[in-house]
Amino acid sequence: MVRIAVIADIHGNLPALRAVMADLERTAPDQVIVDGDLVGRGPQSREVLDIIAAAGWPVVQGNHEAFWVDCLQGHVPSDWDDGWWEPIRMALGTISKELIDWMDALPTQHLVELPGAPTIQVVHGSPRRNNEGFYVLDSDETILEVLNGTPYPVVLGAHTHVPLDRRVGNYRVLNPGSVGAPFNHDPAAQYMLLSWDGKDWQADLQRVGYDREETFRAWRETGIWDAGIAAQVFGYELRTASFHFWHYVRYCKENDLPLNNADSFASYRQRANGHH
pTM for the complete prediction? Predict the structure, then answer.
């Protein structure tokens, strides 16, 4: 039996990555594939990059790697000098030229091909775009439209931070969940173990507990936590194991509130917690 571990969406969360790597020693897969978004959100993106780049595993470029490369090459958002972006600016300042080039050179897909087994196309988002994911509530029609023309019977995408194993038409769609920032209300670091039993791919979600307070300590020790509200939004996502970033941005726009403002974020959290 061939077993392949797929880890994704580590997002600069070094304690979560270390916990998963320790668990990989237990599960002992034949291969490990890293499906993008090593960086961003969490406080230790450079440390995560150092580990993954040295591991020699196949790595697929995520939308965060693509965004970071763009920023480091001077293609930044129009409001880049706003304090909202300061946590990301600080993180980018730790990245060496070698790591920039490494991220830039990452492929956008990886194929898992075994004799007699359905080929698995590993992409960060969808076969079309690295920032387009497959969601639990997507209709079959929506998924089939995204997969239109894809020649591979099994497509594994990450990006949504929510595990998925779904058959739609002639396709099977998989998502390994997120190592460093899960959005399925389960705070454990998550990854997927794929096993070929000679008849089908068995997809088993692995959940690994770890001390999230280590991640919060790293946020504070790096100074990123106090650099801007964006870091605290990411921390709120980690604490709640759910998505908030763009919800918060939209909330501020709809209510004409400044993004990089503690009162704005307190107001958002109060609403998100159901207190009116």
Answer: 0.96
Give the orientation angle of helix 229-240 with respect to helix 212-222, to 10 degrees.
180
The per-residue pLDDT for 82 is 87
The whole-number pLDDT of residue 274 equals: 76
Q: What end-to-end distance do the CA atoms of the chain give, in Å?
A: 54
- With 0-12 / 13-18 / 19 or more C-beta atoms within 10 angstroms meaning exposed / middle / buried, residue 108 is middle
Q: How far is CA 132 from CA 19, 63, 125, 236, in A?
A: 28, 9, 5, 23
Rounded CA separation 182/205 (Å): 13
* Both structure tokens of 132: 């387009």
Of 130, 197, 144, the closest CA to residue 172 belongs to 144
What region, left, alpha or beta, does residue 81 occupy, with left being phi > 0 and alpha being psi -120 to 50 degrees?
alpha
- Alpha-carbon distance of 228 to 265, in angstroms, equals 11
For the chain, domain boundaries: 2-208, 226-272
User: Can you tell me the mean pLDDT for 39-56?
Assistant: 97
Whether the pLDDT of residue 38 is over 70: the answer is yes
- What span, in angstroms and rounded, lies between the C-alpha atoms of 5 and 203? 10
Pick the CATH number of 2-208 from 2.60.40.1180, 3.30.450.20, 3.40.50.300, 3.60.21.10: 3.60.21.10
pLDDT digits (tens, 9 = 90+) for 124-134: 999 999 999 99
Task: Write down the H helix ranges in 160-228.
Answer: 212-222
